[in-house]
Write a structure and sequence with these properties.
The protein has 115 residues and is α+β, with helices and mostly antiparallel strands. Helix content is 18%, strand content 45%. A hairpin with a 5-residue loop joins strand 4 and strand 5 (81-89).
Length: 115
């Protein structure tokens, strides 16, 4: 779970505008159902957004684990929208990177996401 937070912070920092005071929160939704799961979504006026859903699997067993899926996006300095779709579960963090037309995900970003 810590890894997801780190990736979200990296994405937000990379997408930070020149003047962060100009960015407005357009949407912020959260639903914490406790053991039944959670979901949240937010979107900013600079094009950054994230959504995530998580649920507890195999509750009360030796194999209890949280399964998370979601995505986050940002507009890079090149004007291209980059999106990371991910699943994080007992098999680890599994990202898939997408980019808008004209974009190329920097190799350092790919390497850091894929380990």
């Amino acid at each position: 779970m810590k890894l997801l937070v780190v990736f979200a912070l990296i994405a937000a920092a990379w997408a930070a505008p020149q003047n962060p005071q100009d960015v407005q929160i357009l949407r912020y939704d959260i639903n914490n159902g406790g053991l039944d799961g959670y979901n949240f979504a937010w979107e900013l006026s600079d094009g950054s957004k994230q959504q995530e859903t998580g649920q507890l699997k195999n509750q009360g067993t030796e194999n209890e684990a949280i399964a998370v899926q979601g995505s986050y996006s940002w507009v890079g300095p090149d004007g291209v929208t980059y999106t990371v779709n991910y699943i994080a579960d007992e098999n680890g963090f599994q990202p898939q990177i997408e980019q808008g037309p004209g974009g190329a995900v920097p190799s350092a970003v790919v390497a850091s996401l894929l380990g």
